[in-house]
Amino acid sequence: MATNVGMSSCCLSGQLHNHATPTGSVKTIGDLSTYVAEPSPDQNINPKTLIFLVDIFGYELPNTRLLADEYAKQGFLVYVPDILQGDPLPISFLQNVEPPLKDQEQAGLIDKTKNTAIVGATLGTWLPKHREAVTLPIVEKFVDDVKKTATGKVGTIGFCFGGRYSILMAHGKVDAAYACHPSLVAIPGDFEPVTKPLSLAVGTKDSLLSDEQNDQIKEILDKNSVPTELVKYQDQIHGFSLRGDWSSDKDKKAQDDALKQGVAWFNEHLK
């Protein structure tokens, strides 16, 4: 198992990472096209299996695949299924849904109003197509398909849209779960039924999940009988662990620390 847990600057810098090439392959797992990142041969002895549950930008987002490669370097076998089934939102939407914090602070009222209108119009038509009644069965079936061939325990990592589904998998579907800045969560409904180890990485400046809500979630999880944790990242916005603005050293460190958090959690709870 590798011990150097950190994102290489050549792989993860800026918000959209197009200058590095993912090293995994695309295969069909069950019914879904899936990006697969495998550990090196010397690590590939009954590797722990992780399933990435993607955000609204889908499984082809370079950031997602490069992050999967980083987990594979730590000895995990990583699957990134296309749970959106070929219907991600375009990358151009990235600056509308969550611009960097410095851009948000400098934006005028007109820009903020325009962004709000774009987000509302776009998500208003997209989200119903990917509502829980549609997405949850897709995720559950994929987990079942992976578990049929997994040599060890299985965990899920979810980001934003996929973060909620990673939490739902901790209701008993997988052995451990990690959710980074989850969105559209139900409090307390998504958290009270947790029966498997669950870790959360949240930002204190997330526009989709307030610091007060994070405190409510932690209070619920603290009453749980299984290991849980909620780690707050100061001044981090929605999407920071996957699409951080690396022009800021603080944001760069937060993204790296979120990776370390996930690696440590799964090393402990997928034994």
Explain how this protein is built.
The chain is α/β, with parallel strands linked by helices. The protein has a single domain (25-88, 127-269), classed as Rossmann fold, CATH 3.40.50.1820. 38% of the residues lie in helices and 17% in strands. An 8-stranded mixed β-sheet has the order 1-2-4-3-5-6-7-8, sandwiched between helices. The longest helix is centred in the C-terminal third of the chain and has 21 residues, at 249-269. The protein is globular, with a radius of gyration of 17 Å.
Within the CATH hierarchy, at the fold level, what is the topology?
Answer: Rossmann fold
Number of distinct beta strands:
8
Assigned CATH class: Alpha Beta
Uncertain ranges: 1-14, 99-114
Report helical residue fraction. 25-40%
Structural class: alpha/beta
**Can you say what the CATH homologous superfamily is?**
Alpha/Beta hydrolase fold, catalytic domain
Strand order of the largest sheet: 1-2-4-3-5-6-7-8
Pfam families: DLH (PF01738)
Domain Dienelactone hydrolase: 34-269
GO molecular function: hydrolase activity
Protein name: Dienelactone hydrolase domain-containing protein
Short description:
It comes from Knufia fluminis. The protein has 271 residues and is of the alpha/beta class.
Give structural attributes.
disordered N terminus, 8-stranded mixed sheet, alpha/beta, Rossmann fold, single chain, 271 residues
